[in-house]
């Protein structure tokens, strides 16, 4: 790790503190919506959908702006700032609509920064070491998540699980959020201005082939349960509110332990095999949720961590290695995740609310299995065609 560029290290710390703040909110937000605000699972699905879909256009736009005009760091800074100030305001929410609005703003910040941030990382990454570099960055990212979930657990355990405590936890996220903004503002260098800035933009054949292979991931995201529904499944299995962050600790600790090694495996063996392992892990996670015992729920979170970190590292490294207009393709990648994730959340919430939890779980599991089989049927040759 010593040979990783200092700008990537600084960006790692930015993600560390930003995701610390997010992890203080995300495990308890579904409980806040359903148990404290007394909204239904369909409303929870609506919030998740808004939070993912609202950044759809800007993820595409910010990536295009980075490629077309060479504007990178200003987008990254503004995105982190918007996320930092919107999360604490959830403390003042009294309806699902205000929660959806603020989560939308928070995700808007992520939409503005995500593609330019990955472009910055790819700019400062060494050739043939993209997997390792993104693995390092993701390790910092999920290290922040791990810290945030532990902080959330300790606060709930020692201060109680009431409404006032939960709202104060939301407020406290302003501290790590602003630390991240300061680091990216003053320590991270902007991307060097390319001579190609202002060129006549066009999508290349390599870009099209990369996007084509990303559609397997988009389809998987459509079916796999989001974190919010993992949380509510745990509640139905009998977990108390203060225990929910510990489940997220399992997921984030798993990601922290394997992210860097997974990145090195991507560099050594390629994307195809690692994505197959990721999708299989996602299927196992859904199967464990369906089984529903307390032990199975713990294991489901571990496999969720394996799926999340492996699939993200593989896809991000794949884009960095083979795409021509990397900023724009990162934008397409995140936009696809947002669009398909939003549709999936709406469908999951509706099915759970009106048809029951069991049917929602069966839909998630069945869809995940079908996508895995389609991916395996496509074969490794499509990935090798780009190398």
Compute the separation of the termini in Å.
25 Å
Q: Could you tell me the radius of gyration in angstroms?
A: 20 Å
Topology, number of strands: 0
Mean pLDDT: 87
Output the CATH homologous superfamily.
Answer: MFS general substrate transporter like domains
Q: Biggest sheet, open or closed, and with what strands and sense?
A: none
Number of domains: 1
Helix and strand sequence: HHHHHHHHHHHHHHHHH
CATH architecture: Up-down Bundle
Roughly what fraction of the amino acids lie in strands? under 5%
Essential attributes:
81% helix; 387 residues; Growth Hormone, Chain: A; 17 helices; single chain; mainly alpha
List the helices and strands and how they pair.
Layout: H1 6-25, H2 29-36, H3 41-53, H4 56-69, H5 73-86, H6 96-124, H7 130-159, H8 163-172, H9 174-186, H10 205-223, H11 227-236, H12 244-269, H13 271-291, H14 294-322, H15 326-355, H16 357-378, H17 381-384
Description:
- The protein is mostly helical.
- The chain has one domain (6-189, 204-382): Growth Hormone, Chain: A (Up-down Bundle), CATH 1.20.1250.
- The chain contains 17 helices and no strands.
- It has helices at residues 6-25, 29-36, 41-53, 56-69, 73-86, 96-124, 130-159, 163-172, 174-186, 205-223, 227-236, 244-269, 271-291, 294-322, 326-355, 357-378, 381-384.
- The radius of gyration is 20 Å and the shape is globular.
- It starts with 5 loop residues before the first helix and ends with a helix.
How do you describe this structure in short?
Helices cover 81% and strands 0% of the residues.
């Amino acid at each position: 790790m010593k040979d990783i560029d200092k700008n990537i290290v600084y960006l790692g710390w930015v993600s560390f503190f930003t995701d610390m703040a997010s992890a203080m909110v995300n495990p308890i937000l579904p409980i806040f919506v359903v148990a404290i605000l007394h909204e239904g699972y369909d409303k929870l699905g609506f919030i998740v959908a808004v939070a993912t879909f609202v950044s759809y256009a800007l993820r595409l736009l910010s990536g295009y702006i980075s490629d077309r005009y060479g504007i990178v760091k200003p987008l990254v800074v503004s995105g982190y700032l918007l996320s930092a100030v919107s999360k604490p305001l959830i403390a003042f929410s009294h309806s699902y609509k205000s929660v959806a609005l603020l989560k939308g703003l928070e995700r808007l910040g992520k939409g503005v920064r995500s593609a330019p941030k990955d472009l910055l990382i790819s700019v400062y990454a060494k050739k043939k070491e993209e997997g390792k570099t993104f693995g390092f960055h993701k390790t910092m990212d999920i290290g922040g998540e791990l810290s945030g979930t532990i902080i959330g657990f300790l606060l709930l355990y020692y201060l109680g699980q009431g409404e006032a405590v939960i709202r104060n936890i939301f407020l406290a996220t302003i501290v790590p959020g602003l630390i991240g903004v300061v680091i990216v503002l003053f320590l991270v260098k902007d991307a060097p201005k390319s001579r190609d800035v202002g060129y006549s933009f066009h999508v290349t054949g390599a870009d099209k082939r990369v996007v084509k292979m990303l559609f397997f991931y988009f389809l998987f995201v459509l079916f796999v349960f989001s974190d919010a529904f993992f949380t509510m499944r745990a509640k139905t299995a009998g977990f108390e509110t203060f225990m929910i962050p510990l489940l997220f600790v399992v997921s984030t600790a798993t990601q922290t332990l394997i992210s860097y090694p997974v990145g090195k495996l991507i560099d050594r063996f390629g994307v195809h095999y690692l994505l197959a392992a990721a999708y299989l892990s996602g299927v196992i996670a859904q199967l464990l949720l369906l089984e529903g015992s307390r032990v199975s729920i713990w294991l489901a979170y571990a496999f969720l961590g394996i799926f999340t970190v492996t699939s993200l590292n593989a896809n991000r490294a794949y884009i960095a290695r083979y795409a021509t207009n990397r900023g724009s393709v990162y934008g397409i990648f995140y936009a696809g995740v947002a669009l398909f994730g939003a549709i999936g959340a709406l469908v999951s919430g509706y099915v759970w609310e009106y048809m029951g939890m069991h049917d929602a779980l069966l839909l998630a599991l069945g869809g995940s299995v079908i996508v895995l089989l389609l991916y395996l049927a496509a074969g490794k040759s499509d990935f090798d065609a780009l190398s």
